[in-house]
Amino acid sequence: MEIRTRIISRDVELSAVVHRADGKKVVIAFHGFESFKDSPKYIMMGEKFEKAGFNFIRFDFRGCGETAGDKYDLEGRIQDALDVINFAKSEFSDEIYFVGSSLGGTIAILLSEMSKGVVALCPPYVNIGKRKIEESLKKNPPLLIIHGDKDETVSIDEGRRIYEMAKPPKEFFVVQGGDHRFSNPEHLKLVIEKTVSFISSISEKNER
After folding, report:
1. What DSSP string runs through 42-100?
2. Which of 21, 24, 128, 172 would give a disulfide with 93, using CB separation of 3.0 to 4.6 Å?
3. CATH number where 148 lies
4. What is the pTM of this model?
């Protein structure tokens, strides 16, 4: 079941969609710099996670999609993410997982200590404000990085650099021929299947 809502983030209201499942575990999706919550990737991901028993929150960062504000305010995006995390805790539980693409993947990594597991798609190595990737990776939860070897926007070397700095358990998955957006439908299907499988496996271990 999809529910459209608004989440307050200090000076803006974030447009959001919640895919509700029966349980309390929840996945938050952080989109990329030029993307938005209603892209086919996140709609498909929400449907797959809901079927797998996860609540799923997709939202527009400030200045993107249906949310007002300045999209160039990267520290503001961090605040948006923090407020969505608080929303997820209040609505569901603290069994929270992150999925992020491009800049959203970087944000997921920078905030990874607040999650039980992270999947980052094609993340650039970028520090935002006082939050540093190197510091975040000293205490990361299970991490999966997925990168296309034909990424024309973020070099696969950036994804590898992040992976090499992370502590285990961790995995680096290369999509052969994959571009930055995984525009090939077969590539996107593979990425979503891998993402859902990875987070489901972490959740199963947490339930034991």
Report:
1. HHHHHHHHHHTT-EEEEEPPTTSTT--S-TT-HHHHHHHHHHHHHHHHHHT-S-EEEEE
2. 24
3. 3.40.50.1820
4. 0.97
